[in-house]
Specification:
- The strands form three sheets. Strands 1, 2, 3, 4, 5, 17, 18, 19 and 20 form a nine-stranded mixed beta sheet that branches. Strands 6, 7, 8, 9, 10, 11, 12, 16 and 21 form a nine-stranded parallel beta sheet that branches.
- β10, α8 and β11 form a beta-alpha-beta unit.
- The two termini are 27 Å apart.
- α3 packs antiparallel against α5.
- The protein is of the alpha/beta class.
Length: 519
């Protein structure tokens, strides 16, 4: 064998109890699991006191640009992630035409981080995926983003698609599925996807279903209207035949705290009725996205350039200010992050309420200035969830882990660096919300099952050797909201396709990741 991992406790990703076993690796595959005391290998690792688990699969990421710009991908590799699934929330860049790519880059790059050195020459899904082949540290699996398809067909138009536009969208989705996508993502909270009628959503999901794919949805509402948003998602699932993955399930706003039982019962009802519904979530009570996503939809009609024109228009800007001043938001819980301008970077980590007071302006005016000064690229973190709701969401059998990490400069959300070890440290070891076997299942076997991966997500003979070794007593996240770009502790080794990308807690620089496509 090439390598034997000896004396570890194998937690195999199925949810079954851990067991003592050695693991043999040859040619990038797991060749034996069991007592290998009589076997020899070119190299051996003593995993005594550690867990040998499948590499973690992050089913909800925004790694599209980061993996191209920084292929060693330390924020995720160092926490044991071996497979990244993107695009999510309908926010992405392929398939796309010239007009669509220009819109997406101008609109979305604030969410995706520095794109220095990225070659933007692709247009199709095949061309896009080719940019990753042979040069990334983790595996990559792709979901077609509804946003890129829609802007390619009809720009940022604030209306339902007509027949010709819908036909073009379904053709783009079909081509993308043929070229290696596993499914589709949409984000009905974001313009222009928020303008899509039910018929559009069902039609594109039907195309996905033809290929055995699923769709992931950032719903229209996670607050007061969360049940109605779930009902809309169920209807898309039922009418299209495509399985449903609810993205980053959360319950926002203090007046909705305590509703987890109601929401989860609603999901149970859909599953009992025969719908294939699962969801992902992250182990934090705060979320994060673009500042411009908080604007009323009329302000974003026409795309980024049109929005900037409105922000500079002395007749229109006061309407935006008024709308934001009247928004039902607790601005003491909204924190600036990922600022691009030097003047705003000093405010990263501060609440919108504090920044507005410091600058001597109202909230609405602050939002407008942030957007203009940061050229629409500013982001925020919103602390809107409840810890007890979070625990119930994490424990539910339909839940799997997804980091939703944003590769922002400055004070990004700590989930980018800490989501996976945090689940084990806080919700297994400290609080006992999950067993270690349940947590590993939610990070490995379950997302592999949802994706349709047949050769990874478990520690099993014949499967790809994506593995992580960690100390269950020491693993923990160290990233905080105040200091988010910190690597976790307690993870000693990470293998991707049998090659070490983390050795004794240090990145090796190896780039053994593969582009995973449906067989």
């Amino acid at each position: 064998m090439d390598l034997i991992i000896r004396n570890g406790t194998v937690i195999d990703g199925t949810g079954a109890a851990g067991f003592r076993a050695d693991v043999g690796i040859t040619g990038g595959r797991i060749t034996e699991v069991g007592d290998l005391s009589a076997a020899q290998a070119e190299r051996e690792i003593d995993a005594a006191g550690q867990v040998t688990a499948p590499g973690f699969i992050d089913i909800h990421t925004h790694a599209d640009v980061a993996l191209l710009a920084r292929p060693t991908h330390e924020p995720k590799v160092m926490q044991g992630v071996t497979t990244e699934v993107f695009s999510n929330c309908g926010l992405g860049f392929a398939p796309v035409n010239e007009r669509g790519l220009a819109i997406q880059k101008e609109y979305l790059l604030g969410l995706f981080g520095d794109d220095a050195g990225v070659d933007w020459s692709w247009r199709s899904v095949r061309e896009f995926l080719d940019h990753y082949r042979g040069r990334i540290a983790t595996n990559a699996a792709y979901l077609i983003p509804h946003g890129s398809v829609r802007v390619s067909a009809m720009g940022m138009a604030d209306r339902p698609a007509d027949g010709g536009e819908l036909a073009l969208m379904t053709d783009l989705v079909r081509q993308g599925m043929e070229e290696g996508a596993w499914g589709l993502s949409t984000g009905l909270w974001y313009s222009p996807m928020s303008y899509a009628a039910t018929e559009e959503n069902v039609a594109i999901c039907k195309t996905v279903a033809e290929f055995g794919g699923f769709f992931a949805i950032h719903m229209r509402d996670y607050g007061d209207g969360i049940l109605a948003a779930l009902d809309e998602s169920y209807a898309m699932c039922r009418e299209s035949g495509a399985p449903l993955q609810v993205s980053h399930l959360q319950i926002g706003g203090a007046r909705n705290w305590g509703r987890a039982g109601e929401v989860l019962a609603h999901i149970d009802g859909a599953r009992a009725a025969g719908l294939d519904v699962t969801y992902d979530s992250y182990p934090y009570t705060a979320g994060s996205t673009l500042v411009q996503a908080m604007l009323p939809t009329w302000a974003t009609t026409g795309g980024p350039s049109a929005l900037l024109e409105r922000l500079h228009d002395p007749e229109v800007r006061p309407r935006i200010v008024e709308a934001m001043d009247a928004a039902d938001r607790d601005w003491t819980r909204h924190v600036l992050c990922g600022a691009r301008s030097a003047g705003n970077r000093v405010y990263e980590g501060e609440t919108f309420a504090l920044i507005a007071a410091d600058r001597g302006i109202g909230i609405g005016e602050l939002v407008c200035r942030l957007l203009v000064e940061d050229e629409l690229q500013a982001c925020f973190i919103a602390h809107l969830g409840d810890e007890d709701d979070l625990r119930q969401i994490l424990k539910h059998p339909a839940q799997m882990l997804g980091s939703d990490g944003l590769h922002l400069p400055g004070k990004t959300h700590p989930r980018l660096f800490g989501a996976f070890p945090r689940l084990i440290a806080r919700y297994v070891r400290e609080q006992g919300v999950l067993t270690l076997e349940e947590a590993v299942w939610k990070m490995t076997g379950f997302p592999a099952q949802r994706m349709g991966f047949t050769d990874r997500g478990r520690v099993e003979k014949g499967l790809a050797a994506d593995l992580v070794l960690f100390d269950p007593a020491a693993i923990r996240d160290t990233a905080t909201f105040e200091d988010p770009c910190r690597y976790p502790e307690g993870i000693s080794h990470v293998f991707v396709n049998g090659r070490l990308v983390v050795e004794h807690g240090r990145h090796t620089g190896a780039l053994p990741g593969e582009v995973l496509t449906p067989r």
